[in-house]
Amino acid sequence: MSFAITNWAGAVLGAIGLWLLYSAWSRRSRALARQAAGEEPPPLHPSLELVGGIVPPIVLVGLAILGAETTLSFFVLEGGRGLFSIFDLIGFWVLLLGYGVWMVCKSKYRLPDTKR
């Protein structure tokens, strides 16, 4: 009996991606609830105002390029018959999607600092 790690990478990456999506949705919901209650989000530090608007689109383009390169490499180099399965590739895509959504929600929906 042999032990193979087939599809484990995809399952782990997919689970992390789904957790990031849940975390982003939760943050968005909490921020909108606080906004509806009349709380104002904290202002960004002056040094972060410019960076806060520029970095998310740059990272999203980078994630799209990474996803495209990984997909191209998967099908051209391995032809789907290599070490990783299509399930692993889909798990990687879910991770990239989850990170992109999480990063956008983290920068767009700011919450008041509760550490005092």
Strand elements, count: 0
- Dominant shape: elongated
Task: Tell me the structural class.
Answer: mainly alpha
Mean pLDDT: 83
How many domains? The number is 1
Helical run tally = 3
Q: Can you describe this structure?
A:
There is one protein chain. The protein has one domain (8-108). It is an all-alpha fold and 116 residues long. It is elongated. It has three helices and no strands.
Quick structural overview:
The protein has one domain (8-108).
Fold blueprint:
Elements: H1 8-36, H2 46-78, H3 86-108
Helix pairs in contact: 1-3, 2-3
What are its keywords?
single chain, 116 residues, mainly alpha, 3 helices, 0% strand, elongated
